[in-house]
Amino acid sequence: xxxxISLLAVNFIVAQIFVAAFxxxxxxxxxxxxxxxxxAGFAIASLSAICEVVLPFTPMPRLFAVGAFTSVLAxxxxxxxxxxxxxxxxAKPLALTVFFTGSVIVDLVIYDLPRGTLQHAxxxxxxxxxxxxxxxxxxxxxxxxxxxxxSLFCLLTLSAVYFLVxxxxxxxxxxxxxxxxxxxxxxALTSQALGAILIVGTGVAMLGVMVKDIVDEARASxxxxxxxxxCNRRGFSSRVAPLLRDxxxxxxxxxxxxxxxxxxxxxxxxxxxxxxxxxxxxxxxxADLMPHRAVAGRVGGEExxxxxxxxxxxxxxxxxxxxxxxxxxxxxxxxxxxxxxxASFGVSAVAAGELLDAAMRRxxxxxxxxxAGGRNRVECAExxxxxxxxxxxxxxxxx
Length: 399
Prior knowledge:
By secondary structure, this protein is of the alpha+beta class. The protein has helices at residues 2-28, 32-54, 61-87, 93-110, 118-142, 147-173, 186-222, 233-246, 263-270, 272-289, 313-329, 356-372, and strands at residues 252-260, 295-298, 303-308, 343-351, 378-380.
């Protein structure tokens, strides 16, 4: 009995550690709601340890026996809610409520059945199997497949199988003649030991997926330009690198560099708030007109880059000219009526296996040619093609 009680104490302490960890995550991450549900789940489930320790000494064993069952099941249900929030696969409240209520009623009904029988063991353990299996399917439905997600799925599946095995283990090893005798049974020590291992493993895995989310969130934030909402230079490079690796020998990609014409003049004449609005509007134009799978980034103050995987030079030139024309025609808040903003573009083909920096240099050279040629135009690095610029004398680029 002493060994079982010691393991119950360990399980309780471990659960409180996880509660604290999830509470910290709940205030530090965008996964806060999910972590809060998980913290509540571990906190409620840990109450079963108190119920089981009190059980041999209380004159109301039924109350504490059902309390132990209820607290564990309630904790697992709250964890299912938390995982549903995290993986965007919410549990239906009515289904979860009916499942929980029905399981508690069944536990009350089977309390007086002889312990150590298949009927008692089956109906006692099946709700735990069902809720753990339900939680595992959440990850499958989410279609997230990172190593952390797979690890959590495996541990939840193992936990579900553990409760199935407990049906037969309780019969074979004996779980006590009454609920109060459980801690003295041969089954208790093994059950609590394996339970502790699964609690730790599952808790660590759940923390793992949420911590990974925090890390991914921080990395994404560090790679996004706050003003434009596009990638910054670092983010652009990191996102383009795998696309370059995916290019086969027969494929070609295209890089477009764009620079807003006379941007300093915009800031000096109309103020930095107008300059910020120009950056935002140009970013919206890029986001609206660039093809699927293209990557856009703000790689300098008024300089932007777009990588077009599997798009040839001729098509990229057309896309760049479309962006140029759209920007020139756009009415931008903060600028007087009739004043347009223009941009110049340099386009370069990118061969499979080529380093991004080499293509950037060629595109930058083409951009320089566009600037030197009068701005508000598109030039290509390999075969320079001049796109006729607007004759609007109010354009910023013609000042």
